[in-house]
From TrEMBL:
Cited InterPro entries: ADH-like_N (IPR013154), ER (IPR020843), GroES-like_sf (IPR011032), NAD(P)-bd_dom_sf (IPR036291), Quinone_OxRdtase_PIG3 (IPR014189)
Keyword NADP among record annotations: yes
Assigned keywords, A-Z: NADP, Oxidoreductase
Organism annotation: Actinocorallia aurantiaca
Protein name in UniProt: NAD(P)H-quinone oxidoreductase
Residues in Enoyl reductase (ER) domain copies: 10-316
SMART domains: PKS_ER (SM00829)
Ranges in a coiled coil: none
Amino acid sequence: MRAISILEPGGPEVLSWQEAPDPVPGPGEVLLEVAAGAVNRADVLQRLGFYPAPEGAPEHPGLEASGTISAIGPGVSGWSVGDQVCALLGGGGYAEKVAVAQELLLPVPAGLSVIEAAALPEVACTVWSNVFMLAGLKPGERFLVHGGGSGIGTMAVQLAKQHGAETVCTVGTEEKARRCVELGADQTINYRTEDFVQAGEFDVILDNMGAKYLDRNISALAPGGRLVVIGLQGGTKAELNLGKLLSKRASVHATSLRARPLEERAAIVASVRENVWPLLEAGIVRPVIDRVLPMSQAGEAHQVMESSGHFGKILLKTGES
Ligand SMILES: NC(=O)c1ccc[n+]([C@@H]2O[C@H](COP(=O)([O-])OP(=O)(O)OC[C@H]3O[C@@H](n4cnc5c(N)ncnc54)[C@H](OP(=O)(O)O)[C@@H]3O)[C@@H](O)[C@H]2O)c1
């Protein structure tokens, strides 16, 4: 098969589309003939050498993919050769083939193409597990997501709104603000010119900035509020004012999806299938796809992501590349 290899830590030019050994599905795994993979911020970190693949995961980048099952390993039940699926991966999505544990598969939602489905597993699982399973966002609560125009943000805005939360997001441009309102955001805050702490108190905050926003995020929490940090774009170390946290009876969580044991990821995928998939199949929530590039142009896709030139997901398709 062909796959994207990271030749050495560095810029987008180190992503090379080249021959690689075909994966072989082990017990409980299927082989996926990849139609498309998707780009995540974590892939940029992996390319730079800061976020190596967890033990046992393929070396090639790519945390999600969609395609057709072409072979079945021993002990797989409920999936067949020819099924069109998408999958949450520990790595290996930037490739023509990838072996996936059966528990991490999801069917292509009715009404969506197999390519479109590549935009879903990582954002649906991250948002669902953090905002709903962990932080327990309830109807009528106020929700803030930083980076409303990101892959994560576009899913978080839609799901929070659909669940009856008052939904606010930060964005870097007026164009992204307009598009987030189209997705259901009740209010947007331009992080370049406005301070989100002035926008009232929030019951749940989904944060991508880490250290840079920690203190202001806690200031912005309502009594009983839940801050969930999933990204460290603004650094890893900051002072935590426990007094402020204590007086609000608030909590701070920090989580990573990729490093979780298979059983935990499987439970998240099952909950996403039960709770998010019906909304996708009803057309109430949709994947937001900025562009689809050939997988051989993964470097160009990373450049777009690093310059924040996208809204939603960037996909990489295997055909004609
Ligand atoms: N822990 C996990 O399991 C997990 C899983 C998936 C993703 N993540 C994290 O979630 C975040 C989003 O991932 P993604 O793949 O969807 O990335 P992405 O599409 O590249 O989005 C990055 C976002 O950061 C925003 N941003 C930049 N500077 C900001 C600032 N000062 N204040 C607020 N927002 C700012 C950008 O906003 P503009 O474009 O408007 O400038 C953009 O929306 C990343 O930090 C990623 O690492 C974590």
